[in-house]
# Entry
Amino acid sequence: MRFWKMHGLGNDFILIDNRDGAIREAGMADLARKLCERRLSIGADGILLIGDSNVADLQMRIFNADGSEAEMCGNGIRCLAKYCYENAIVKKTEFTVDTLAGRRQVWLILKDNVVEAVRVDMGTVEWECSKIPMQCEGTAINSDLHAEGKNYKVTCLSMGNPHCVIFVENVDEFPVEHLGPIIENHEAFPHKTNVEFVQIIKRDTIKVRVWERGCGETLACGTGACASTVAAHKLGYTSPKVNVHLLGGVLEVGVANHVYMTGPAVKVFEGTL
# Structure
């Protein structure tokens, strides 16, 4: 079985073409746990499985390092787009990908016929608590969330997967490793949640650290960058288009009727299982 190891700003994945169905549904979660284990295996934040689709050019399945399946992954879909183009699975520079969060459109940015970056239509935002899902009424925009005897102001939304955004004064010094898993597993989120800790730098720049559901802190998170941008704009902190500085690099995110994200995708190596 051939694979590519790839990353988007350090958020790394193992990509496998599963259009032949060689990896059965029942074995996907276990395979992710085995392959993503660092030091003892390939090591990654998750695996991406490419499949056929009746509603898009192809399908993307995402399994986190702990075996849980994610609805959507911004960094992952950029990697998948590069993989599919450079392996001639698709032969066009604009195509659609079927995910558990719905169909997403991608545009490839090429240099010498090599994909350097990908622009992704990340879809629309869902604010209703029941759609995130979150145990609350209406919406949770700059709302109170109690954890470990403290109160935190949170803005929660869905980018096809759940996000809880917390604005902080200094993201570098904030105890992300401590609070991240507490919020991820908070009773308010029946399917757990991704957690973004966001520092406003200026109107067109934010700095973000992400605690990803099922992974822990990652160097970057595409849907997390989008959620952070949308929340910051909603609260009036930023303009509609911002540069999102993550531990692994910078993503460009714009908010209009849909949310658009642009960033790199990198092949690290390929191998055989």
